[in-house]
Amino acid sequence: MAYQLYRNTTLGNSLQESLDELIQTQQITPQLALQVLLQFDKAINTALANRVRNRVNFRGFLNIYRFSVVL
């Protein structure tokens, strides 16, 4: 189910809303909408794996560990 992670993004939600509208107006079938979503899952995962090269590093300080104050 990790491949469906990006369905909850703005782009994924917009796609789902558009597909739902097309289903309601009977312009596409639910099976076609499912195929579109599966293709979206594959495409977004491939694009992010191959095209995005950004990384994020962060540092922090630990003040409390298991209810004990760290000095």
From TrEMBL:
Species the sequence originates in: Notothenia coriiceps
PANTHER family linked to this entry = TRANSCRIPTION INITIATION FACTOR IIA SUBUNIT 2 (PTHR10966)
Q: List, alphabetically, the Gene3D superfamilies matched.
A: Transcription factor IIA gamma subunit, alpha-helical domain (1.10.287.190)
Gene Ontology cellular component? transcription factor TFIIA complex
Source organism, top-level taxon: Eukaryota
Q: Does the keyword Repeat apply?
A: no
The principal location of this protein is: nucleus
Q: Family, per the entry?
A: Belongs to the TFIIA subunit 2 family.
Ranges of residues in domain Transcription initiation factor IIA gamma subunit N-terminal:
3-48
The protein here is known as Transcription initiation factor IIA gamma chain
Q: Name one GO biological process term.
A: transcription initiation at RNA polymerase II promoter
Give the location in the cell: Nucleus
